[in-house]
Amino acid sequence: MAASDPTNPQATTGGAATGGTDPARTGGTKPRGETVLRVENVVKHFPITQGVVFKRQIGAVKAVDGVSFELNRGETLGIVGESGCGKSTLAKLLMRLETPTAGRAMLEGRDMFKLSGGELRRMRRNVQMVMQDPYTSLNPRMTVGDIIGEPFDIHPDAAPRGARRQRVQELLDLVGLNPEHINRYPHQFSGGQRQRIGIARALALKPEIIVCDEPVSALDVSIQAQVINLLESLQDELGLSYIFIAHDLSVVRHIADRVAVMYLGKIVEIGTEDEIYERPTHPYTQALLSAVPVPDPKARAQREIIRLVGDVPSPANPPSGCRFRTRCWKAQDICATTEPQLVLRAVEPHPSACHFAELKQHVVA
Amino acid sequence: MNERSGPNGRTSPQGVAVDDGHLLEVRDLFVEFHTRDGSAKVINGVSYHLDAGETLAVLGESGSGKSVTAQAIMGILDMPPAVIPSGQILYRGTDLLTLPEDERRKVRGKQISMIFQDALSALNPVFPVGWQIGEMLRLREGMSRADAKRRAIELMELVKIPAARQRIGDYPHQFSGGMRQRVMIAMSLALDPAVLIADEPTTALDVTVQAQIMDLLGELRRDLNMAMILITHDLGVVADVADRIAVMYAGRIIEHADVHSLYEAPAHPYTKGLLESIPRLDHKGQRLTTIRGLPPNLMRIPSGCPFHPRCPYARQECVDVVPTVRSLGNDRTSACHFAQEVLDGRI
């Protein structure tokens, strides 16, 4: 995966600008395009054990099985896939909430999987997370001020004691909430407002990277758009990089600059938003895109939906060779014996892990 | 199908409905929930109808009352706290709300049945699925165990569960999400109902599985000539399968139209806002238009038009006067003072 971010030509200016100091910093001046995170061959296997006293491992759920990508400054990398494809495990690995079985993740020239203690804590300031469910991810017994200010207890140097309240109010203002509501409790807010609280909490330590795990899927349609717009304007303002994990392909198309499609623990195709949505070459991506209902009844007749048969196989026992072959209409003998690598294919200048990668017209109606 | 302008719109354009009006008709239904904190007016005068063989989509966000209306039709509302102060639910001309419970039970499942969103919590985890499908047949049809089992296998084959005969003894947790939803569908079809209410049947599923389930539902609806009420918040799913669509907001139907006209030109600012605010797969990202504000608190529904605090076109009239349901011809209605202007794009 070459760093192929054509989105911004000013990639080389500036260099190591640290996390923004003030929300009022104007957008667009941050040097974009430079790689902030490089993930190499990350693997996470969860052991399956048998026995009560003498546990022995009888297998492993291969949740994430060799994932590599790069994240550039100021860009949004969308990660899509069906449930069980490992996208949330990947998010947890990047947050160091799970320990990877193998692999590296280079952040500021250091492998974040190797850090511990104080170094790990400092690294964590740079990578924050917005969770899916705004109802369970906020402690109901804490006020909004305490929730958003809690990161300052762990990182006291981020905001001096006296200035914390003011800083929290700035954050509330930044995410579009009334700063006077600092003493309210989560139940006094609606779902969309709660998600804003979660975003404010993620922003408290001025991170460079925010991992968003399904940040809008629990919200109503009319509220989704508000939160998506907020995430976008915060990105412009603060030069944030997002890893945006979602199962809703329309939302990802809207927000992402680049998109990685995952299937059973592996990335099967990665490219710019245009490459993935307009010119996908992997059959799984094509099937996934064709299955998304388009809000236009006129497209009903023209839409050619690729019907996948069956369910996603168990990640404890993935198929040999290409993992998608059991549901793929193109599968041949080679697919069972040789695993296709995620490399550039002749047909298209973006990586695709399929022996028979080819363009297909009109995948999206 | 002329929406309630006259006392009874008895025309049946598709000619398939029973002679006397519609297969199912909800008339001016009100539902309140009495709680300690006051009463929440959840349904405020909902009317819709359904004819044999058609699919009506009821679209709305959480709290709009779309599921409560369905639960009122099924007679599975918890009363109390729910109260139905007024309204009628006519099934083949009989008002279900006036029926005694044992009569009502004969309708439930056999005439009108329902599939729920979350199949995992709707199924009983400690019984095999085949037993659960057969339960209804044994209790309601008085079938013997062996017959019920045979029929359960048939039903599982009908909803395309592979190796039905082998899987009949499996428990819900042994099935994937899509397969569990198929089991739910099999159960809802067991008594051969005329109306199927699908409450967010695919919300918990992945897109590829969603496509399979929506296909299956469409196929079964055609083959068994059922009428379907599809309750959803997903504008994409609606566009794919529905004939007509009723948009709900704050316990009212604020717009009703056939699906093509509605997507072509919405006649209510809320519908317009919804259509503009969804990110689309077939369009590149640009800033989304949003509907400002929040859905209303049902304890304190705004005066006048309930949508006025969020409506970009709201005027004084909207604050003062509750808009009546306006007919726009072609079986279209909109509950907006300026429906015609919105429809023509003049507003």
From TrEMBL, chain A:
What name is this protein filed under? Answer: Dipeptide ABC transporter ATP-binding protein
Q: In the UniProt record, does the keyword Nucleotide-binding occur?
A: yes
Give the SMART domains listed for this entry.
Answer: AAA (SM00382)
Pfam families noted in UniProt: ABC_tran (PF00005), oligo_HPY (PF08352)
Compositionally biased tracts (Low complexity): 11-29
Which terms does the record give in the GO molecular function aspect? ATP binding
Q: Which family is this sequence assigned to?
A: Belongs to the ABC transporter superfamily.
Which residues belong to any copy of the ABC transporter domain? 37-289
This protein's UniProt keywords: ATP-binding, Nucleotide-binding, Transport
Which Gene3D superfamilies does the record match to this protein?
P-loop containing nucleotide triphosphate hydrolases
From TrEMBL, chain B:
Where does the UniProt annotation locate this protein? Cell membrane
- Ranges for domain ABC transporter come to 24-275
Q: Name one GO molecular function term.
A: ATP binding
Where does it mainly reside? membrane
Which Pfam families does this entry report, sorted A to Z?
Answer: ABC_tran (PF00005), oligo_HPY (PF08352)
Task: List the keywords (alphabetical).
Answer: ATP-binding, Cell membrane, Membrane, Nucleotide-binding, Transport
Instruction: Give the membrane topology, semicolon-separated if more than one.
Output: Peripheral membrane protein
CDD domains, per this entry?
Answer: ABC_NikE_OppD_transporters (cd03257)
The text of the family note is: Belongs to the ABC transporter superfamily.
The record, for NCBIfam families, names:
oligo_HPY
Task: From the Swiss-Prot or TrEMBL record, give the protein name.
Answer: ABC transporter ATP-binding protein
